[in-house]
């Protein structure tokens, strides 16, 4: 297989790939419900998987201020309380970066279980905050489906990011 060749002068481009991929996945996740109506109540949180992966393997390329801005964009597009997605993305990256020794150089199973735990905590916190903001307990079934769909797509996300990491970002 031929390796992807990017000239050495493109180091800033290489370093921007994880953020660009995460932003692309965020936009794709927001666009899926309009193109696939069945996903309306539960769009997959593709960007969460990307933030998790890059925070484990290249935390230096996941700057928290840029993640916060990305989350504000998502909040504006999805009409969520301002700062809601921004805080979620930053907290996922921050928590993973604090716990990097646990996740680094581990098996895929450990990486997936770590993501499952962080995603579950994030979704539970989001449900609680939105329920408090709306002043009523929101239904949890769409959240469960959203989390399950995100976890089901995680292997594909990891495969894509591993390819990028090995052949471009390194």
- Percentage of residues assigned to helices: over 70%
What integer value in Å does the Rg equal?
16 Å
Termini Cα gap: 18 Å
Average residue pLDDT: 86
Unreliable residue runs: 1-9
Portion in beta strands: under 5%
Tell me the total number of β-strands: 0
Morphology call: globular
Which sheet architecture does the biggest sheet show?
Answer: none
Helix tally equals: 7
Helix-strand pattern, N to C? Answer: HHHHHHH
> Helix/strand/pairing class, anyone?
mainly alpha
In short:
It is built from seven helices and no strands. The chain has 170 residues and is mainly α.
Walk me through this protein's architecture.
The protein is mostly helical and about 170 residues long. The chain contains 7 helices and no strands. The chain has helices at about 10-35, 45-55, 65-80, 85-100, 100-105, 110-135, 140-170. It is globular, with a radius of gyration of 16 Å.
